[in-house]
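Thread title: Can someone regenerate the structure for this chain?

I was given the following input by a collaborator and told the matching structure tokens would be attached. They weren't. Posting the sequence so someone can regenerate them.
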Amino acid sequence: MSRFDPSRYFNSIVSSQIETWHEWVKEKIDAADFRNRALKFEKTGELEIDLSQMTENVTMD
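Best answer:
Regenerated them for you:
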């Protein structure tokens, strides 16, 4: 998250991406896609992560 806002005001970061996240969740539910996934926001865009294939923990940095 620090990639978005060096001041680390996470609430402002979350609120700026909430609509994108809601749409992503809605699409997953509508498609009955209940796999173990997460949506990661990066400066270059969004990245869908398969949590069941991760070998490391996701960090907030």
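The radius of gyration is 13 Å.
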